[in-house]
Write a structure and sequence with these properties.
The complex is a heterodimer of chains A (300) and B (180). Chain A contains five helices and twelve strands. Chain A has 300 residues and is α+β, with helices and mostly antiparallel strands. In chain A, strands 1-2-5-4-3-12 form a six-stranded antiparallel beta barrel. In chain A, strands 8-7-6-9-10-11 form a six-stranded antiparallel sheet, with no helix packed on it. In chain A, strand 10 (239-245) and strand 11 form a beta hairpin. The chains are: A alpha+beta (300), B mainly alpha (180).
Chain lengths: 300, 180
């Protein structure tokens, strides 16, 4: 009797050990898949997230409300200081308003002269943030718009005012926005009014760096940063923020989007000229196939 | 109550899964979208460490696998990496739990810190081997410090959740060890 029992325990132990090895191999394979075929792995992930997160919306509602109340309460403490600051600011704003009215009139005159038309193609769809990534190294968030709302990868996401990020993965009912603050985010921008091209690189802080500026001497703190539309992924002329210079002489961007009160997201419908289909290919205008031209040369 | 009954152990396993999911959902709440200076620790890992040295029967392999795979999926981590490392780390802790239980609290804390350091190193090594874009090493060390600070919190959570009279028993055990 004890012999068969011993056999049985040995057998179960063997099965357990085999299962453990299989699970390890499975995990390692998943890591490799994630690394090698990242878009497919992200699609699997967003499918899983799609199933879990929107159904938890009801569970999150009270907690969201509670944290919001806490934040509101904390803001009462600062009310007095804010009030004084606002009064000073109002004084300064009055001067600015005067300047703005004059500029508006001038602008209207110039537009009339120029017969400029603004692009009517850019429409947008709004959604709210469901969840953030919960990690310091990944500045992303989930929003409640998905393929059902016609979302596509690569579309720009804004808050009311400034650029927030870009759609990187689209599920049926939810999708992921990667913020401009993420260290993998690189966005072609132009700096107005000098119209210099540069790249805005995220640094995992609230102040992304501005790299690869042409003629950096002409750029002053406070200059406006807008998307340039280079590369054809983003529409041009979306507001990003202002230029600031750090103590080390590094150019940084003060973002126009308010990340501290980010709740609603506006996604700009803009189909890129170069759709992102093969993620391993460079994004840009389609080049003619080199083998074709070779054949032509051969024929000629 | 029979604490060795199958249904009771199964209940505890499900309890751990539910608690881990709760922690993950707390992380997911969009409370603060501003990049943080200090990341919250991997609290699920800390809970698992605290539990497996006390009650390994509540943490079979499938529970570890499920929880950490979900952690990877939902929190935008490299897919499967935490599950892989947790399976290895937990197997190590499971086989060495008797030695760990005989330590006093401070040396246990130090040992777990060393364990977390090796865990972080292994993670960095794997990320390096697959040529992934690495997290800054200094940041990883900062996280290690934060995790170490949070370990006693995880211990208290486990004590409260899985053993109502945990502290009392600890005292008696220490007392006995001191006598012997």
């Amino acid at each position: 009797m004890s012999g068969t029992q011993q056999n049985e325990t040995r057998y179960t132990r063997l099965v357990a050990r085999l299962g453990f090895g299989m699970l390890l191999i499975f995990c390692l394979a998943l890591v490799l898949l994630w690394r090698i075929d990242n878009p497919r792995a992200e699609r699997i992930r967003i499918a899983v997230v799609d199933r879990f997160v929107p159904s938890m919306e009801w569970a999150m509602a009270p907690v969201n409300r509670a944290t919001q109340m806490l934040l509101d309460f904390r803001s009462y403490e600062r009310l007095y200081d804010q009030n004084r600051e606002l009064r000073q600011e109002l004084q300064r704003m009055k001067a600015w308003r005067e300047a703005a009215i004059q500029l508006e009139q001038e602008n209207a005159r110039l537009l009339d002269l120029n017969k400029v038309k603004l692009s009517p193609k850019l429409s947008s769809v709004s959604g709210r943030i469901l969840a953030d990534s919960g990690s310091r190294f990944r500045q992303t968030a989930l929003i409640n718009l998905g393929r059902q709302d016609g979302l596509q990868e690569g579309w720009a996401a804004m808050d009311g005012l400034g650029l927030v990020g870009r759609i990187v993965a689209v599920g049926a009912r939810s999708s992921r926005v990667i913020f401009v603050t993420d260290s993998t985010s690189q966005i072609p921008v132009k700096i107005m009014p000098s119209n210099r091209r540069a790249i805005l690189s995220g640094t995992n802080t609230l102040r992304p760096q501005i790299n690869f500026i042409e003629n950096a001497e002409q750029i002053k703190p406070g200059d406006r940063i807008e998307t340039s539309g280079d590369g054809g992924v983003f529409p041009p002329d979306l507001l990003v923020g202002q230029v600031a210079i750090a103590s080390a002489g590094q150019y940084q961007a003060i973002l126009a989007a308010d990340f501290e009160r980010l709740e609603l997201i506006r996604v700009i419908r803009f189909s890129p000229q170069a759709p992102i289909q093969d993620p391993d290919r460079l994004i840009g205008p389609l080049l003619s196939d080199p083998s074709d031209s070779f054949v032509e040369i051969g024929d000629g | 109550m029979d604490r060795t009954a199958k249904w009771f152990i199964g209940l505890q396993q499900i309890k751990f899964i539910v608690v881990s999911l709760l922690v993950i959902y707390v992380y997911l709440l969009p409370v603060n979208l501003v990049p943080m200076q200090f990341q919250p620790p991997n609290f699920v890992l800390l809970l698992a460490i605290a539990l497996i040295t006390r009650y390994p029967q509540y943490l079979p392999i499938w529970v570890i696998f499920t929880v950490f795979l979900l952690y990877d999926f939902l929190l935008y981590q490299p897919l499967g990496l935490n599950a892989f490392l947790a399976l290895i780390g937990m197997a190590y802790l499971r086989s060495n739990r008797i030695g760990i239980r005989q330590m006093n609290f401070l040396s246990e804390w130090a040992f777990i810190t060393l364990f977390l350091f090796l865990y972080t190193c292994l993670r960095e090594v794997v990320l390096f081997l697959i040529l992934s874009e690495n997290t800054p090493f200094f940041g990883a060390l900062m996280d290690l410090v934060v995790s170490t600070i949070y370990y006693p919190v995880a211990l208290v959570c486990i004590a409260l959740l899985f053993e109502p009279r945990f502290m009392e028993r600890e005292k008696i055990r220490r007392f006995r060890l001191g006598q012997g």
